Amino acid sequence: MRAHSSAIDDSSIAVGPSTGIGPGTETGVGTSAGAGTGAGTNSTAATGRGSHRGGLTLAGLGVLAFSLTFPATAWGLESFGPWSLVALRTLLGAVIAGAALLLGRVAPPDRRHWAGLAVVAAGVVIGFPLLTTLALQTSTTSHAAVVVGLLPLTTAVFSSLRTGARPSRAFWIAALAGAAVVIVFTVQQSGGELSGGDLYLFGALLICAAGYTEGAGLARVVPGWQVAAWSLVFCLPLAVVGTALALPAEPVRLTAHGVIGLVWVAAGSAFLGLYVWYRGMAEIGVPRASQLQLAQPLLTLLWSFFLLGETVPAAAPVAAIAVLLCIAATQRTGRDRRTR
Question: Which of 137, 168, 242, 255 could in theory staple to 87 by disulfide, Cβ–Cβ 3.0 to 4.6 A?
Answer without folding.
Answer: 242
